[in-house]
Structure formats: C-alpha cells, structure tokens
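User: Sequence recovery, please. Input:
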C-alpha cells in the first residue's frame, strides 16, 4: 500500500485484534461513517479497516435494495393472507378455493421477485461494479 509516497506492506489478518485506537469525528462525519458501513453491510470497525488497508468496499446497489423492500412487502402480504386463511379455516373447518388461489398468486409473485433479485445481484457482481468507494 502507498501512503505519502512510502510503500507499506499490509498486515496479516491472523490473530485476535487486541489494540484499540480512538478517532474523533464531527457529527456529519459520524453520520457518513454509519451510513457507509451500513450500506456496505459491515461494522464500522470493518469498514474503517477496509479503507485503511486499501480493500475494496462493496455496496448493495439501489436496485437490489428496492427489490429487498418489495420482497419484504410481498412476504408481509403472504403472511397476512396465511393468517386470514388460518383464521377462516379454524372458524369454519375448511379453506375456500379463492383463498388458496390468492395465496398461490402471491407466492408466485414472491418467487418472481426472488428470481429477479438473484439475477440482478449476479449481474452486478459478475461485472465488478459493486465498489462503493473506489480508492
């Protein structure tokens, strides 16, 4: 790694981390660090180490975040329908065909969202476009 025109070897990652340093940040800097670490799916310490030692930091693309949000909404709808079907079945002793069709339709939607999410993630990561903060 090059720091101020001097080349330093990156330390090995073996052993326990027992040393601690203190860094003072302004409120906006701390907010930025928290957001950047969260978007990279890392702890703040992992994120700082990755930047100090020159590792590339991955960021989940906005399209994938949107798909996770839609997936979460779809799962909520399915869960709600399952609860309604269970309540109806407990009260009446049977499940209507319309309820089963609705549940099946929601499950197909969920499967479609999962498939598209997988394809999009594989597309982004296969091209190496996942670096959030290039060095």
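Assistant: Recovered sequence (135 residues):
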């Amino acid at each position: 790694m090059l720091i101020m025109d001097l080349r330093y070897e990156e330390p090995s990652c073996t052993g326990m981390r027992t040393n601690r340093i203190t860094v003072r940040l302004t409120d906006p800097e701390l907010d930025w660090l928290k957001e950047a670490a969260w978007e990279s799916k890392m702890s703040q310490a992992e994120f700082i180490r990755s930047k100090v030692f020159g590792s590339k930091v991955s960021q989940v693309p906005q399209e994938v975040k949107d798909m996770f949000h839609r997936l979460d909404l779809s799962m909520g709808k399915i869960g709600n329908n399952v609860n309604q079907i269970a309540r109806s079945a407990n009260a009446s002793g049977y499940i209507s065909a319309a309820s089963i069709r609705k549940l099946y339709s929601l499950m197909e939607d969920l499967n479609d969202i999962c498939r598209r999410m997988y394809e999009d993630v594989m597309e982004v990561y296969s091209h190496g476009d996942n670096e959030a903060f290039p060095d």
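The first helix runs from residue 27 to 39.
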